[in-house]
Specification:
The chain has a two-stranded antiparallel sheet. Strand 1 and strand 2 form a beta hairpin. By secondary structure, the protein is an all-alpha fold. The protein has 16 helices and 2 strands. It has 2 domains: about 70 residues, no CATH class; about 220 residues, no CATH class.
């Protein structure tokens, strides 16, 4: 196997860059060190190749901490998403029009808190598990599409955060419909009830590193399970569990106060468009995607 220096140099260059910008952590070192996989053997080089879209997605998301707030300042939407949601997807309870988020804030149950919290905790793990299975069963063509879908749908999701930054339901519940505050950190919202049930602090840890406070549009929480559900249709015995998990995530996003129904519809649409377009491009052997592979 011909040895190459550039993947290793790129990895350690990433570590150095984060160190210079500030905020270097252990996970940055681990990500940068993954470049060493290119030099070990053919299998690890192949792993790095097919999982690079996942790694790059994580790097892009983490980099947002350097430019997120300047990018959204001055055009954050708080009231518009709320009033649209209430008008289109709202419900009437006790003679009052409200969003489903507001309804579930007043009506919630421990067993539902558990299953919704669990879904929110493992939704990325489900996607990565599916990717690992594709790799170890040598389904490389499908894995390539799967990885590119993950990268592209996240890229356009992140881009939407800047084009139309929207306050999530938990923000409206906690801070109201006034001008957007710039001193707010991501919150676990109703997912904290899962931690209360188990006496854990999972969601404090997860959202403690969050960046996109005003990233309600679209719900990327539902895009990943939908793409896994598409994949599961190739394997008959996994169809029902994968679809069930997708619909659980759809419900959880609203029930846990993280997203409006509007966000869920947008996230689903992003996933479907991404999947259809990338499949066609790969079938036509697009030069761009061939180079990326």
């Amino acid at each position: 196997m011909k040895r190459r220096i550039w993947p290793i140099a790129l990895g350690f260059g990433y570590i150095a860059l984060v160190g210079l910008l500030g905020g270097l952590r252990g996970d940055h070192v681990v990500i940068g060190a993954l470049g060493l996989l290119d030099a070990y053997n053919e299998k690890t080089r192949s792993f790095l190749k097919y999982f690079f879209p996942f790694i790059l997605t994580g790097i892009i998301y983490d980099s947002m901490r350097y430019y997120y707030w300047p990018g959204v300042r001055g055009h954050i939407h708080v009231a518009e998403p709320y009033f649209f949601e209430r008008a289109v997807f709202g419900v009437t309870a006790a003679g009052q029009r409200m969003t489903l988020n507001e309804y579930f804030a007043a009506h919630h149950w421990s067993i539902v808190d558990f299953f919704c919290g669990f879904a929110y905790l493992v939704f990325i793990s489900e996607y990565l598990l599916a990717a690992f299975l594709l790799f170890f069963y040598d389904e490389h063509k499908t894995l390539r599409l799967f990885g590119m879908c993950f990268l592209v749908v996240n890229f356009f999701g992140f881009l939407t955060y800047y084009i139309y930054p929207a306050a999530p339901p938990w923000y409206v519940s906690q801070y109201g419909l006034g001008p957007a505050r710039l001193d707010v950190q991501p919150a676990s919202a109703a997912a904290h009830r899962f931690d209360l049930l188990l006496g854990t602090h999972f969601f404090d840890a997860v959202y403690g590193r969050g960046i996109d406070v005003y990233g309600a549009y679209p719900s990327l929480h539902v895009t990943y399970p939908l793409l896994v559900a598409w994949l599961a249709f190739k394997y008959k015995k996994w169809r029902v569990p994968a679809l069930a998990f997708y619909f659980l995530m759809v419900f959880s996003a609203v029930y846990l106060q993280h997203h409006y129904v509007t966000d869920v519809v947008m996230g689903t649409t992003y996933a479907l468009i991404c999947l259809v377009v990338l499949r066609r491009l790969m079938e036509k052997k697009s030069p761009v995607l061939e180079a990326a592979a």
